[in-house]
């Protein structure tokens, strides 16, 4: 029987057909017992379980269901268009109905695809039930045999073996059913994850704003698991809503962690996360109390049925007597209902959660998609216009009036977005983007995109791993990599969305000449450049001037200037005199043209600061990298992120101790006492029944039936009360432990060093905060309830069997030892499989996260199939670990239930042997209870496995306690004056900085004094150490040697928050978080509304905010996407104005904003920070030159790509005057003086200005 089941389960799994299937599986278990399993030890996934096979069929069916839903909605909209105006209530009901319908459509689709296979399992369940109900009939025959002293002995043995056989067959078919359920559950999970991933690639902009990255990650982590549990086991909505909010916020925190650390805002966001968490746990507590009531009710249901049945039977007629046959056959039949009834609350709970998850998934999967027919693509034809927009109107959402009409692209397209999207891969893989490396072309692209100097700086050359979102690259480096990716594609049409704004002026000039310009590598391609700069416009063929979403002017540069319209006025407004113009003739072919679209207010993106300034490491040339062995070494040097690692071996006892310690002895002792009391009451009322059944019949009746019934009822009621007490106590204990573990995890992550976030993929962290915390919230307490309940029940059965037949101890003892051996043999393998499954889950979340953020680039490059294949492979890799895990559980359950069936056989045979001395009541009690052992062992296995597997979540959550932590945020007895710093003077004393041990120095021997109120510009090429200086001042990186002093106090001796909260940075990337506008300005609520409004006024935002319906409570979307780039940068300025600290650091804060916004920011900084020390890190020399009022120096000053010539004249300054410029190179200060003096010295600064065309 066991062999049949095992063969049936694994015949399609094992690789070697010649080997025995049992031997194959035993090898895996033995290997797992001897040494920790690795991913390569596992079987390949069966073809029918792979993502490609599952999703291929499902996608077609889901498309049909979606089409039906859209048809229904369009017919309703048509009715509304005929003049039927719907009330708000009706519209809300329609929205709810749509969400519900989409959920049911998803369920119907899943049922259609997986239902037939599921029904084969249901057939096994029906056969199992038939065997299950036949066992009490055989018990009745056995009890009849015990009572009949003249019955031949062989009948007793026959009944005993028949019970054993039926029990084994019941186990066999039960686990075949369970295997089918788990297989369907696994396939449903694969299917839903695949649908969500594919949807995220085609969802339109309006829908994307309502579905944050955190919510999408939650859909593929928590919701798919809920559906899976529903398939297996056949107040959730509120809890899921708060969990969504928490995961969404955590995703934003992880994305903007650098900004939180710069502003010392960790505590404010920690409190926000804990606020969501507290609401989530309160919802969980309410649902758990209701769940406990239902568990107590349903667990007591078997007693209530027996009490009602026996009570009615004996009370309606005195002649009705309860003998052993009536009592224990009835109890055996009632106990069949016990397992399903006790699981009914869990099934109801999982069903409710699954309904909520279905609705959430259906809602997401039915969101509006981009229409593929809006853009027509045709093969390349040199005689036809490359891009045609016919009556084109564009919008972000349905609500906005314009919408896309008709666009035609002729040939392949490459796209460089305003926000450089970088994958967590090597720099080379980011450029190749799935294409084969062609040496000479690759080298040419790298050189043209000005990446060769970066390759010399990066520790592993082009094999250096780039962190998520380009964490370890500067804004300019990210943009150049993004540009190189597009150029390498060799497309026919190039769309450039302002790629030059984030790079140095001389680098921008280089890129234009080598890539975009008339002599660049793309000279024979169609190029569309969106820009708010003006310097390159004379070299383009056609300029489209856009204002308020419309093309207002069109023509060449010379034509537009001659018309004296808006464009000409704009150029004059930002130019002081004429400049030399270079004009080029338009290409002969229409497709070979350069089109520039100038928009005076362009929305840009987030760009991360820093980490590109790593100290240079000596590396081999590009040609040398081709050597395979050397390439591996370079790849190892360049590795940044650490893959999620699986622990090995059995779960340590310390983990259980740690978990129970967080619950506390004050709760654990009552739990144990209540379980013991609950089982003692159960034992007492069952024993009381056996005494009642053995009561002699006098004159056809039994005496004192009222008393017997009363005692039976009291004991049963006491058991029910104890069950409620234990379930509530464990639920509360689980919530206490979960709250504590989540708090520890959050604190450990927020206190971690910045390098931790650069080397840890966000998927790993989101996995901990979503799936692992969800397991600690629900799975561990549920598993403990089940396990403890059944363990105590097993003790009760053993005591009863030993009371009836003490000789059974001879059999129970070896069976217990064998049970423990098989269990321990299995758990080692099971735990490692659980760890491998958890570890392989993190890359899925990371890939989802990355895809959602880069969906527009992936679509533009037509790389959807490749990314879908990657997603499929990651899901399949995860399922490869999951599949043997649940198969192993079934294997263990069959083995252990076989041992339980042996106990049934032993109890029955001993009863047959000792029928002369045993009463029918005690035999009925022993055998009916031994029949429960099979079910009890099955549930113990499931519960123990669940607890053991899910306690791994505690292990994975606790592992971040060991990461490198930052210095303390505050010191209790800090000597820091309350108004520090008063003057704002800064001193560097032989200061040195390293990014990581083993790398070269990023800053070397920096000694420098900056006086109070001094304005200092810091310049240098990429990798010179400019941004490293800012990191050092804010202690994002700690000093490797020397020190920094502010107002004479060594900053290393004060708390990080004490330092960071008293100095301010306006970063290059204007990061906003979801929440109110006021929260984004003042998360601690430390300022009055008047102060906030004053800051907004100074930041030129007062009119805009006053016009918003919710004013300061205006809800910002994730990343502040519902504000323009200029508005986001002004919000960052308002933050600085609100803090008004004595030291302000500007990290090229206006590099990518339009000229008008730049004007506003610079004028405010000049007036409001006049008495502050200002350090300006200039990635582009333009910024520093703008700050200067140069006297008696003939110099060209470039203002946002507009040339102004000054000769013995004071030019207008848009910011404060820098007293000094610091020129840095490879971590050293090479020059330091006023800009005019540095230019006159003809040193490095002069050469940089010369390269940039400024002198």
Automatic annotation (TrEMBL):
Single GO cellular component term: membrane
Membrane topology field: Multi-pass membrane protein
Limits of the ABC transporter domain: 331-573, 988-1251
Taxonomic superkingdom: Eukaryota
Name recorded for this polypeptide: ABC-type glutathione-S-conjugate transporter
Keyword match Signal: no
Phylogenetic placement of the source organism: Eukaryota, Metazoa, Chordata, Craniata, Vertebrata
UniProt EC number: 7.6.2.3
Catalytic reaction equation(s): leukotriene C4(in) + ATP + H2O = leukotriene C4(out) + ADP + phosphate + H(+)
Spans through the membrane: 117-136, 156-173, 289-316, 659-677, 711-737, 794-822
Record-annotated ABC transmembrane type-1 domain positions: 119-353, 671-949
Subcellular location: Endomembrane system
Recorded GO MF terms: ABC-type glutathione S-conjugate transporter activity; ATP binding; ATP hydrolysis activity
Family affiliation: Belongs to the ABC transporter superfamily. ABCC family. Conjugate transporter (TC 3.A.1.208) subfamily.
PANTHER family named in the record: ATP-BINDING CASSETTE SUB-FAMILY C, ATP-BINDING CASSETTE SUB-FAMILY C MEMBER 6
Keywords for this protein: ATP-binding, Membrane, Nucleotide-binding, Repeat, Translocase, Transmembrane, Transmembrane helix, Transport
């Amino acid at each position: 029987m066991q062999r049949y089941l095992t063969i049936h389960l694994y015949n399609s799994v094992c690789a070697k057909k010649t080997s025995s299937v049992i031997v194959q599986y035993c090898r895996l278990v033995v290997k797992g017992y001897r040494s920790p399993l690795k991913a390569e030890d596992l079987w390949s996934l069966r073809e029918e379980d792979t993502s490609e096979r599952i999703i291929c069929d499902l996608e077609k069916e889901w498309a049909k269901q979606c089409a039906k839903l859209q048809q229904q909605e369009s017919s309703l909209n048509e009715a509304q268009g005929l003049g039927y105006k719907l009330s708000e209530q009706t519209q809300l009901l329609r929205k709810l109905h749509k969400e519900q319908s989409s959920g049911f459509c998803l369920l119907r689709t899943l049922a259609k695809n997986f239902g037939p296979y599921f029904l084969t399992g249901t057939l096994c369940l029906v056969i199992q039930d038939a065997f299950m109900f036949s066992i009490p009939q055989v018990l009745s025959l056995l009890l009849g045999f015990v009572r009949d002293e003249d019955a031949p002995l062989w009948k007793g043995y026959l009944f005993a073996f028949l019970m054993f056989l039926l029990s084994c067959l019941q186990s066999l078919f039960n686990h075949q059913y369970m295997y089918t359920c788990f297989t369907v559950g696994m396939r449903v999970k694969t299917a839903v994850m695949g649908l969500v991933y594919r949807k995220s690639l085609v969802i339109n902009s309006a829908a994307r704003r309502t579905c944050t990255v955190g919510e999408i990650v939650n859909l593929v982590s928590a919701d798919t698991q809920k559906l899976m549990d529903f398939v297996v086991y056949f107040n959730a909505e509120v809890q899921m809503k708060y969990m969504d909010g928490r995961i969404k916020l955590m995703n934003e925190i992880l994305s903007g962690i650098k900004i939180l650390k710069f502003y010392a805002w960790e505590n404010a966001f920690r409190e926000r996360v804990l606020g969501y968490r507290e609401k989530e746990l309160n919802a969980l507590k309410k649902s758990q109390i209701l769940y406990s009531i239902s568990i107590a009710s349903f667990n007591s249901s078997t007693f209530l049925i027996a009490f009602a049945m026996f009570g009615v039977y004996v009370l309606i007629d005195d002649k009705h007597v309860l003998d052993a046959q009536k009592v224990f056959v009835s109890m055996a039949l009632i106990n069949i209902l016990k397992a399903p009834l006790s699981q009914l609350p869990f099934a109801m709970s999982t069903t409710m959660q699954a309904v909520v998850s279905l609705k959430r998934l259906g809602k997401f999967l039915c969101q509006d998609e981009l229409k593929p027919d809006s853009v027509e693509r045709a093969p390349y034809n040199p005689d036809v216009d490359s891009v045609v927009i016919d009556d084109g109107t564009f919008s972000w959402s349905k609500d906005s009036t314009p919408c896309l009409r008709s666009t035609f692209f002729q040939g392949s397209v490459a796209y460089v977005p305003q926000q450089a999207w970088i994958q967590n891969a090597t720099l080379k893989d980011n450029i190749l983007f799935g294409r084969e490396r062609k040496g000479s072309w690759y080298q040419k692209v790298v050189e043209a995109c000005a990446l060769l100097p970066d390759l010399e700086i990066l520790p592993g050359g082009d094999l250096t791993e780039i962190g998520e979102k380009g964490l370890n690259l500067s804004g300019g480096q990210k943009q150049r990599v993004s540009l190189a990716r597009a150029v390498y594609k060799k497309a026919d049409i190039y769309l450039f969305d302002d790629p030059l704004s984030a790079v140095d002026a001389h680098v921008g000039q280089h890129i234009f000449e080598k890539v975009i310009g008339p002599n660049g590598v793309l000279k024979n391609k169609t190029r569309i450049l969106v820009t708010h700069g003006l310097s390159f416009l004379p070299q383009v063929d056609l300029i489209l001037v856009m204002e308020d979403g419309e093309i207002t002017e069109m023509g060449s540069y010379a034509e537009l200037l001659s018309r004296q319209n808006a464009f000409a006025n704009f150029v004059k407004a930002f130019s002081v005199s004429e400049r030399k113009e270079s004009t080029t003739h338009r290409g002969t072919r229409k497709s070979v043209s350069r089109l520039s679209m100038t928009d005076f207010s362009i929305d840009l993106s987030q760009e991360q600061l820093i980490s590109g300034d790593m100290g240079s490491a000596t590396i081999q040339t590009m040609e040398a990298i081709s050597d395979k062995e050397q390439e591996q070494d370079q790849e190892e040097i360049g590795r940044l992120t650490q893959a999620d690692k699986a622990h090995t071996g059995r779960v340590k006892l310390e983990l259980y101790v740690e978990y129970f310690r967080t619950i506390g002895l004050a709760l654990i002792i009552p739990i144990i006492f209540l379980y013991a009391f609950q089982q003692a009451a159960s034992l007492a009322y069952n024993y009381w029944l056996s005494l009642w059944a053995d009561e002699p019949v006098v004159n056809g009746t039994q005496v004192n039936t009222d008393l017997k019934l009363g005692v039976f009822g009291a004991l049963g009621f006491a058991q029910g009360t104890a069950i409620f007490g234990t379930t509530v106590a464990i639920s509360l204990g689980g919530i206490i432990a979960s709250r504590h573990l989540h708090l520890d995890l959050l604190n450990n992550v927020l206190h971690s060093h910045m390098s931790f976030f650069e080397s840890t993929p966000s998927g790993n962290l989101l996995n901990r905060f979503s799936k692992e915390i969800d397991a600690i919230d629900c799975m561990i307490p549920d598993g403990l309830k089940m396990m403890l309940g059944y363990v105590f029940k097993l003790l009760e059965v053993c005591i009863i069997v030993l009371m009836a037949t003490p000789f059974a101890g001879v059999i129970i003892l070896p069976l217990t030892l064998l049970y423990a051996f098989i269990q321990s043999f299995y758990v080692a393998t099971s735990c490692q499989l659980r760890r491998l499954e958890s570890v392989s889950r993190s890359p899925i979340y990371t890939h989802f996260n990355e895809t959602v953020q880069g969906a527009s680039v992936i679509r533009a490059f037509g790389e959807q199939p490749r990314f879908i294949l990657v997603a499929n492979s990651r899901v399949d890799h995860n399922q490869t670990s999951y599949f043997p895990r649940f198969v192993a559980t079934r294997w263990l359950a069959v083995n252990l239930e076989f041992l339980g069936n042996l106990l049934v056989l032993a109890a029955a045979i001993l009863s047959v042997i000792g029928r002369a001395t045993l009463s029918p009541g005690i035999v009925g009690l022993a055998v009916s209870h031994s029949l429960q052992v099979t079910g009890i062992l099955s549930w113990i296995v499931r519960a123990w496995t669940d607890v053991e597997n899910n306690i791994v979540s505690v292990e994975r959550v606790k592992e971040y306690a060991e990461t490198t932590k930052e210095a303390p945020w505050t010191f209790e007895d800090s000597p820091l004056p309350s108004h520090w710093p008063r003057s704002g003077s800064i001193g560097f004393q032989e200061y040195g900085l390293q990014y990581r041990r083993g790398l070269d120095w990023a800053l070397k021997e920096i000694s420098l004094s900056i006086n109070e109120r001094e304005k200092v510009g810091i310049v240098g090429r990429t990798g010179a150490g400019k941004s490293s200086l800012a990191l050092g001042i804010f202690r994002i990186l700690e000093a490797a040697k020397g020190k920094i002093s502010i107002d004479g106090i060594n900053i290393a001796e004060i708390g990080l928050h004490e330092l960071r909260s008293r100095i301010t940075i306006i970063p290059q990337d204007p990061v906003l978080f979801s929440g109110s506008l006021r929260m984004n300005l003042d998360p601690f609520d430390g300022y009055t509304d008047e102060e906030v409004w004053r800051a907004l006024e100074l930041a030129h935002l007062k009119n805009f905010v006053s016009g918003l319906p919710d004013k300061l409570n205006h809800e910002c979307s994730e990343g502040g996407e519902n504000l323009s780039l200029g508005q986001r940068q002004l919000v960052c300025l308002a933050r600085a104005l609100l803090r008004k600290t004595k030291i302000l650091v500007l990290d090229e804060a206006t590099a990518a904003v339009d000229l008008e916004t730049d004007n506003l920011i610079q004028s405010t900084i000049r007036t409001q920070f006049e008495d502050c020390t200002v350090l300006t890190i200039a990635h582009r020399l333009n910024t520093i030159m703008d700050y200067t009022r140069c006297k008696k120096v003939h110099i060209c000053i470039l203002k946002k790509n507009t040339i102004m010539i000054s000769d013995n004249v004071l030019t207008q300054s848009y910011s404060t005057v820098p007293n000094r410029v610091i020129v840095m190179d490879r971590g050293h200060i090479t020059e330091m003086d006023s800009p005019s003096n540095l230019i006159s010295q003809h040193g490095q600064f002069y050469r940089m200005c010369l390269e940039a065309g400024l002198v």
